[in-house]
Please model this.
Amino acid sequence: MSATSKGFASALSSGIPTRHARISGVGGYRPKRIVPNAEIVDRINSSDEWIRERSGIIERRWAGPDEGIIEMSAWAAEPALAMAGIEGSDIDAVVMATVSWPYQTPAAAPLLAEHFGSKAAAFDISAACAGYCHGIGLASDMVRTGRADNVLVVGVERLTDFTDKDDRGTAFIFGDGAGAAVVSASDTPGIGPTIWGSDGAQWDVISQRESWIDVHEKDLGWPTIGMAGQTVFRWAVWGMAPVAKRALEAAGISADQLDAFIPHQANVRIIDAMIKQLKLPEDIPVARDIAYTGNTSAASIPLAMERMIRHEEIPRGGLALQIGFGAGLAYAAQVVVIP
Ligand code: UT7
Model:
C-alpha cells in the first residue's frame, strides 16, 4: 500500500466517530382545501360508502396554487425545526422525498435549503411512499457517522397534479401535504436499523403511465399515475408485515414493547391486516390519518406522527414502528423514538 493510500485508509478508519441519532422534531402541513368523498364520487361513478369501506378515506386535502411543493415543505419544516430547537443555519443537509416535484432537475431540496438561508447539502430521493423512511434511514447514517449534526427530512407531495380525476382506481385515494422531521445527533439511540428493499419485477404496478419522452414525442398531454390496486394491495398485505417484523427484530424489541404503529397511510384495510399479522396488542395507538388526509405518499408517515403527537395519543420518548411502501415496489421500515 502506498503512503497516500495508507493515509486514506487510516483517515477512513479512525476519522469516523460513531454516535447515535434521533428524531428531534416533526411537523406537518395540510392544504387548506378539504375535499370530502361527496365532491369526487360523480366523476368516478362511486359512492361515499364504497370509498369509506374499501379505503377508510372520508376526506382528503387538495393543494391550491399557493401551496406548492416548496411552500408546503417550508410550513411543515418550520414547526419541526422549532421542536428540535434549531435554526435554519444549523441544518447540515436537506433530504426531500417526493415524486411530484414537477422539475426533472434540479432537485427541490436546494430551494428548501435556500428558504431557510442554508447552503447545506440538499438532494431529493425518489422512493415514492417509502421515500420518507428511506430519508430517515439515510439521515440517521449521516448523523451517526458524523457527516451531519442535523438533517432536515421532508416528505411532500402534490399528487393531485399527477392524478387523473376520472380514474376510478386512484382519484379517491391520493391527496396532498407535507411532513417533516429533523434528525439530530443524540447521546442515546433513537433510530433503529432500516430494513429496506425493492421489487423491480413489479415496477409497473404503480407508475407514471408514460415516460416524459413518450409524452413529448406522442403529444400525450400530461402524465398521470396509474395503479393496479389489487396487486399492490396483496403485496402490501402479505409482504409488509414480515418487513415490519424484521425492523422490530433489528431494533431488539418485540411488538408488545411498541408505543405506536405508524404505517404508510395507503388503505385502512392494509393497516388492519398488518396489525393482525404483527399481533400488536389492542391498546397500541395506530395511525389512521388516512381518514382525513387520504394517501399522501411520502408525506403520510410524518403527517400521521405529527397528528398523533399533537393529539397526545402517543408518549414522547416512546417507541414507534414506521413503515413506508409503494411504487418501485420499494419499502423501508425502522423503529424510532417519538420526539
Ligand atoms: O400508496 C402506495 C401503495 N398503494 C396501495 O397500497 C393501494 C393498494 N390498493 C388498494 O388500496 C385497493 O386496491 C383500492 C382501494 C385501490 C381498491 O379496492 P379493492 O378492494 O382492491 O377494489 P377492486 O379494484 O378489487 O374493485 C372491487 C369492486 C369492483 O367491482 P366488481 O367487479 O366487484 O363488481 C370494481 O369495479 O369495486 C369496483 N370499484 C369501484 N366501485 C366504486 C373499483 N373502483 C371503484 C370506485 N368506486 N372508485
Observations:
- Residues 229-251 form the longest helix (23 residues).
